[in-house]
């Protein structure tokens, strides 16, 4: 079949996802028809120039649409410079990643950032150029090819909500070009900004208060949700949609497999609201998804919306958008609940939240599951959910911040506050997986029991994200239990942002030759084991439902993966104490073989009771 025919078939397939959305968003715009023609022409042009090997991959993934839901998917997330110096350096570490079982590599922001403080690269001044410190677009394409040869996909960040104020569009806007001023949200006075601010939420209250910046030289107030140097794009302008769609196709044609769409919740503004997750955001994301699905069918969209449970689900497409929006979205609620249960040694809130708000099954989509990433942890726990288990929302959120900062009496953790909002009392937390899980403090104290507990907490987290359903993501250095890096405090462009605490440089000595009997080695060996086991357990396919079940004790979190071959019951002990589970309870959950697929060994019971060790995890058939 000729390539042209395939494009047309895909064009027809995505019709309902594209044109009705664009009509709703931009139908009233005077240049709507020209916009539609231009978009169609751009898609055809991008298809024409799409390399043959990528077209073949498109076809393969069209035929195997569940490729990213399979249990052999494992992501690894890193900063290019902190991991390997530059893009060419990454090649040297591909064996290491392959040994870990990695099949998906997320390069933290790698497009050309503004000079100086660039919010860790999320302030992009050129989407068509790679960060010159990392290499060139040619290097990125070569890396994409090398990864593909090893069966690994490449994910990169695509910042949709804003550009750097140094981006060419912003420069033209600043020079007074009205067409480019319409790319951003610029106001002649503070009248409207003040009205909007009444209902907006502060994102960086500490170092970038307010959501607008006044530039006396330009004579404008500019919408800047995040930092002053990040100018929010005006998505109500179809030209912005067209420009971004072009860039996404450009990157797809360079061999990128997954586009991580950054800060998507903020893309649409509506007076009188928080300007987050407005209905138009979903129309835009569905339409963008259609654009890549037509031209580059193998590409996935990972949506980054770090919001409460009900809101988060909408990024998979709810209601009319069901199964038609993001292929992947971060399960930040699973992450938050892991930390909450660990501090409380109590899983009741975790069970309540994950059972009440999340469906057992997602259409055409799966979660990106993780325990740590480059960002802070915000306690996305609502007052209602906290109330359901008899605690107050503010009280519990405060407890978690104090606990993970390390100030709560008896806490095992060492972290730092991030963006304390004095008005709302909201405190977020920074720190590496290992430091928050207790390793840093335990090592300082030389306490072998606590060191072992910290290791087990980390393996518990990995066993959880490996089995919950979705693509588990390992954040660089967590597999070797790297602790906090305090060096950022001495760097002027980083000192204001405690998130640098958990962005250490990779310790290759520890990774390649970990000391015998060290916690680093235990975590590395244990992590490898977990993901190797995951590959061999078909029941962990992301397409199989995940049903949260009432656990046999308040320290255990439990769910059942409802595979066609029978349930796989996964249990996680969040406490330092052994937990007793009756054989009867296990039988009631459909366990017949009494075999733990995680340790790859039968489970034994004593007097009708099975004992789950401190911080133990099992996957039972
Ligand atoms: C996302 C990124 C975060 C960044 C923000 C603004 O949330 O993960 O690191 O600060 O977007 O771009």
Q: What structural keywords apply?
A:
621 residues, alpha/beta, Oligo-1,6-glucosidase, domain 2, Immunoglobulin-like, eight-stranded parallel barrel, four-stranded antiparallel sheet, 38% helix, binds alpha-D-glucopyranose
Summarize the structure in words.
With 621 residues, this protein is α/β, with parallel strands linked by helices. Among the domains are: 162-232, Alpha-Beta Complex (Oligo-1,6-glucosidase, domain 2); 546-620, Sandwich (Immunoglobulin-like), CATH 2.60.40. It has an eight-stranded parallel beta barrel, surrounded by four helices. Strands 18-19-20-25 form a four-stranded antiparallel beta sheet, with helices on one face. A hairpin with a 7-residue loop joins strand 18 (546-548) and strand 19 (556-563). The longest helix has 20 residues, at 448-467. Bound molecules: alpha-D-glucopyranose (GLC). The site of alpha-D-glucopyranose has 10 residues, from loops.
Number of helices: 24
- Distinct bound molecules: alpha-D-glucopyranose
Could you tell me the mean pLDDT? 96
Please count the beta strands (DSSP E, at least 2 residues each): 25
Strand order of the largest sheet: 1-2-5-11-12-13-14-17
Overall CATH class of the domain at 546-620: Mainly Beta
């Amino acid at each position: 079949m000729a390539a042209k025919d395939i494009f047309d078939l895909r064009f027809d397939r995505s019709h309902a996802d594209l044109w009705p959305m664009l009509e709703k968003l931009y139908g009233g715009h005077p240049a709507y028809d020209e916009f539609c023609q231009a978009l169609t022409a751009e898609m055809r042009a991008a298809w024409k120039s799409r390399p043959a090997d990528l077209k073949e991959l498109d076809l393969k993934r069209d035929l195997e649409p569940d490729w990213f839901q399979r249990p052999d998917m494992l992501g690894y997330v890193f900063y290019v410079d902190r991991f390997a110096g530059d893009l060419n350096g990454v090649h040297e570490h591909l064996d290491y990643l392959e040994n870990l079982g990695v099949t998906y590599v997320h390069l933290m922001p790698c497009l050309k950032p503004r000079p100086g403080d660039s919010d860790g690269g999320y302030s992009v001044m050129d989407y068509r150029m790679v960060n010159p410190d990392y290499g060139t677009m040619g290097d990125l394409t070569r890396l994409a090819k090398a990864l593909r040869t090893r069966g690994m996909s490449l994910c990169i960040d695509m910042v949709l909500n804003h550009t750097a104020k140094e981006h060419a569009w912003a420069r033209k806007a600043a020079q007074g070009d009205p067409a480019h001023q319409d790319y951003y949200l610029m106001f002649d006075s503070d009248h409207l900004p003040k009205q909007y601010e009444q209902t907006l939420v502060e994102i960086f209250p500490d170092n970038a208060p307010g959501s607008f910046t006044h530039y006396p030289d330009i004579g404008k107030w500019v919408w800047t949700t995040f930092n002053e140097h990040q100018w929010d794009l005006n998505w109500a302008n179809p030209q912005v949609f067209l420009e971004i769609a072009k860039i996404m196709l450009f990157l797809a044609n360079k061999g990128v497999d997954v586009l991580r769409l950054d800060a998507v919740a903020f893309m649409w503004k509506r007076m009188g609201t928080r300007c987050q997750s407005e209905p138009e955001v979903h129309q835009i994301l569905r339409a963008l998804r259609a654009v890549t699905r037509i031209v580059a069918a193998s590409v996935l969209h990972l949506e980054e919306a770090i919001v409460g449970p009900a809101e988060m689900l909408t990024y998979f497409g709810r209601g009319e958008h069901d199964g038609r929006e993001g292929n992947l979205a971060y399960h930040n609620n699973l992450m938050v609940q892991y930390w909450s249960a660990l501090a409380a040694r109590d899983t009741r809130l975790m069970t309540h939240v994950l059972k009440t708000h999340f469906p057992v099954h997602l259409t055409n989509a799966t979660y990106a599951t993780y325990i740590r990433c480059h960002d802070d942890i915000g306690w996305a726990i609502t007052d209602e959910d906290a109330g359901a288990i008899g605690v107050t929302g503010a009280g519990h959120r405060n407890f978690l911040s104090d606990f993970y900062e390390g100030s709560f009496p008896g806490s095992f953790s060492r972290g730092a506050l991030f963006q304390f909002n004095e008005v709302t009392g909201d405190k977020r937390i920074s720190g590496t997986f290992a430091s928050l899980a207790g390793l840093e403090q335990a090592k300082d104290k030389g306490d072998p029991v606590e060191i072992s507990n910290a290791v087990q907490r980390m393996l518990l987290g990995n066993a959880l994200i490996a089995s919950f359903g979705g693509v588990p993501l390992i954040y660089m250095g967590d597999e070797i239990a790297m602790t906090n890096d305090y060096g950022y405090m001495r760097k002027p462009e980083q000192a204001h942002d405690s998130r640098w605490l958990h962005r250490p440089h990779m310790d290759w000595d520890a990774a390649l030759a970990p000391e015998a009997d060290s916690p680093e080695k235990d975590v590395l060996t244990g992590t490898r084991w977990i993901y190797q086991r995951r590959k061999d357990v078909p029941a962990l396919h992301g397409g199989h439902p995940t049903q949260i079940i009432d656990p046999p004790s308040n320290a255990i979190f439990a769910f059942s993966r409802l595979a066609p071959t029978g349930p796989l019951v996964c249990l996680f002990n969040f406490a330092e104490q052994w937990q007793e589970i009756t054989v009867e309870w296990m039988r009631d959950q459909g366990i017949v073989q009494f075999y733990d697929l995680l340790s790859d060994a039968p489970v034994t019971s004593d007097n009708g009771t099975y004992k789950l060790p401190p911080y133990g995890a099992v996957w039972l058939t």
